[in-house]
Design a protein that fits this description.
Distance between the termini: 32 Å
Oligomer: single chain
Number of domains: 1
Number of strands: 9
Largest sheet: 7 strands, parallel
Shape: globular
Structural class: alpha/beta
CATH class: Alpha Beta
Radius of gyration: 18 Å
Amino acid sequence: MPGALVTGAGRGIGLEIARRLVGRGLQVAIADVDEGSAAATAEELGDRAWPLPLDVSDAEACRSAASQVVERSGSLDVWVNNAGVLVTGPAYEQTVDDFRRLIEVNYLGTVNGTLAAIARMRAGGGHVINVISLAGLATASGIVGYSASKHAAMSFSVGTLADLRRGGIKDIHISTVCPDGVWTDMVDVDDPEDALSFSGVMFMPQQIAERVEKLLDRPEPVLAIPRWRGRFARFIAGHPRLLVGLTPLVMRDALRRQRSMKKKVESGKWPPREYR
């Protein structure tokens, strides 16, 4: 049976991606730093899912996790780097430890998982899918450290794919997923520093997981969700003077949208009924 591993799979996007992979017949390691969440998710998803406590900032632990998947399933076919953390607030008010934690999980966690997966996939190919963010395409006020860590993860992912192809390795794919806001525990309707999460389209984890599953059949180096927001992010990133100048206006509009979302939540109009 083909094997897969999803990090941060105890809840949110990771859980829904794992659900999709189980549905495709893969045996899925539910990897999460929260052992209880990993166990609960594995039990929910059934016999093809199994819990695997994992701190993605630990490179040796990631290598061990990859080995465990191969030992249990016979091969490692899919590895999804989804685990992430968020710290909000003005960059100049945050500590170096805040930035270090973001780098350790969001960037080095992606590096650790990708390298561990590639080492095992050299024998028979496979697909690494790295869940990044639109904040990995353009810097974002209020979540600068998060955005910086995601930029690093994006550069690493695309660059490593290029290195694989340069080395003649064509049976290992790396896809990145850059979604707009996603309704998970990470976003906060009461935190004004997180307003940009509400500035565009708010998705449910199930919607992102559906798009991730499609990448298994057609890998893409970069998939922005929605695509038009990705094009806008790339444009604004290429015009830093415009980005800086528009930030106050963009943040005011984002705060308005955040307040509107809070009202929808309080009135029972969000999340959509079909996802409750």
